[in-house]
Amino acid sequence: MDREMKKMIFCIQENLLIERFDDQMLVFQVDKNLPYVLNGVAAFILRNTDGKKSQEDIAEKICMKFDVGFRQALEGIEFIYEEMRLKDLIVRVG
Fold first, then answer.
1. Which among 13, 42, 57, 88 would be 20 to 30 A from 26, CA to CA?
2. What is the total count of domains within the chain?
3. CA-CA distance, 80 to 55, in Å (whole number)?
4. For position 68, which CATH number holds?
């Protein structure tokens, strides 16, 4: 992941209904009538996608919560963000 990508900041789209279940999350895209179930890591990433934290900031939190290396955390965020962007669940703000 290049340096510029790691600095990008995203926020959650406004057209979503979100319900947490333990460490998982149900995300319902209202305008497309589509449900998504996020596992614990993806749910943690989405909860921290607040329009303020960079991917590096979130990676640091993942390292502490899930006991993984920083590089592995960043790669996971990149993959999950790409999937979320393709599904219009998040939007870039910075």
1. 57
2. 1
3. 11
4. 3.90.930.60
